[in-house]
Amino acid sequence: MKVLGMHWDSEADTLSVKPVKMLERSFVTMRTVLKQVAKLFDPLGMFAPVTLKGKLFSQKLWIKQLEWDEKLSKEDKEMWFDIKDDISKIANHKMNRCVTVGDKSSVTNTLVCFCDASAFAYATCVYLVQSSESQCNSELIFAKTRLAPTTQTAIPRLDHHVGVWYKSSC
User: Fold this and answer.
1) Domain span at residue 12?
2) What is the pTM (predicted TM-score) of this model?
């Protein structure tokens, strides 16, 4: 069953993303890379480290000003095949839909948010931390990444931008 663009296995009560059909081509161009990266749909950001790699690689190709159908260099091809392998493994991972633990009356719930920026990207992730007398559990609820501008921007300015961006997306 499809829910919010994700696949829901109602028997196991797990969520997964739709497998991305990867083009098997020896002739890799910027067009094929961008096509594959654009197919990634991860609305909750659960696979942000993988999707970010694809976005950063696409940005790198734009900066090199390659033509749409120009072959990638050997180094770029190797980089793309590593990213492609990671993308193809995404569909094998399933996440539990239910993230609650134990008796709800004795559990303390806390939302914890982390934001950070680098010269290449900035990101936010939100965790639900649940604690009771007998156990403590944390689950990733949501994550979001953005590419940093290609122009030189100071890291403190990007950190400030992450805070403003996070507040507006909540």
Assistant:
1) 2-95
2) 0.79
